[in-house]
Amino acid sequence: MLNSHLIRTALGCALFVALSFMPVRAAAAVTIVVNGATVSFDQPPIERAGRVFVPLRGVFERLGATVVYDNGVINATGNGRNISLKIGSTMATINGETYSSDVAPFLVGARTLVPLRFISEALGATVNYDGNTQTVSISTGVASGATPPPAVALTNLNPPDGGVVQSSKPAVSASFSQAVDPNSVKVTLDDRDVTSATAISPSDLLFTPPYALSATSHTVRVVGTSKAGVSFDKSWSFTSGTSTVDNYLHNILPTDGSTVGGTFTVSGSALPNSHIHIVAASVAVYGGGVFRMPAGSYNADLTADANGLFSQVVTITVVGGGDVTVRITSSKTASNSATVTLHLKS
User: Fold this and answer.
1) Which residues face 68 on adjacent strands?
2) Which of 25, 205, 279, 284 satisfies CB 3.0 to 4.6 Å to 319 for a cystine?
């Protein structure tokens, strides 16, 4: 596994001079095996400066990583790690910390090639090289016959699966049984994409339909990938009715746009005895806003008192200069739900 000591050891190694002008040759004789399966490539691995480079998606998606390439910046997420590299740069960011590699990603035609060992170890994989057979073996720790990472389940469904609600705009929420990559999650309601209207954290999702639902059955579908790289596709159904009362959220504190620390209090008022669901997610911002990485999450359920007042202490991991989003939903039988989203600074 790549650790800080090993990465920082690379800082003491001399960088290869004029790396971009060094000879590049196909490493056709090298065999690459991931979790016991040989990987084939339409663009063969390339050896440069004594390192093996492979196409961006050739290996790492097999390691359970979600890979995004945009304008020269490579972001890979998997196994609880967030790695960012840039074409031509030997600097890399791993979970918000900056490290140095002795080689840089580069382009061959339309292909992006990345250093095999560095990225594999950054994603928590073990890398071994057999010089006799010229084989690079990469393992995520899930060997043949081993127990794979657990599947993702949805819990705390609201409305419950098969349930009936009176509201035509019910607060829809669920919890994930294990941490997920929020950027991978897609949510649909009756095959209509509502992801952009959904607050998604590594542990929860929450949205309120922006339009009134008909008095019939509705299906919520959630697809995505866990932090461990396990894909999931889950759904549940409920029936909505007709609301007779509009819920509300008034006098909400903290105010939108204010600055908070790792512990702050969310308070306000709603219909008396309403169910209050609070979801908070913090994001660390790096590189002038270029890189955004999840930093912490929080959720809570409580009940407003007989006067409709509620108050909840929120404790969440934050990073200075980052963003904190808080979603508050108030719901009650025979009423529409009300939702307020706060965009805070840390």
Assistant:
1) 75
2) 284
Q: Taking the model in full, what pTM does it have? A: 0.42
Q: Is residue 8 within a helix (H) or strand (E), and if so which, with residue range?
A: helix 4-9
d(CA 279, CA 274): 16
Partners of 324 in beta bridges: 282, 344
Which pLDDT score is estimated for 9? 38
**pLDDT at 264 (0 to 100):** 96
In the numeric block, which tokens belong to residue 331? 């719901």
* Residue stretches of the chain with pLDDT short of 70: 1-28, 141-149, 242-244, 287-291, 334
d(CA 187, CA 205): 9
C-beta separation of 136 from 38 below 8 A: no
What is the amino acid identity at position 47? E
**Distances in whole angstroms, Cα of residue 91 to Cα of each of 83, 288, 317:** 11, 16, 26
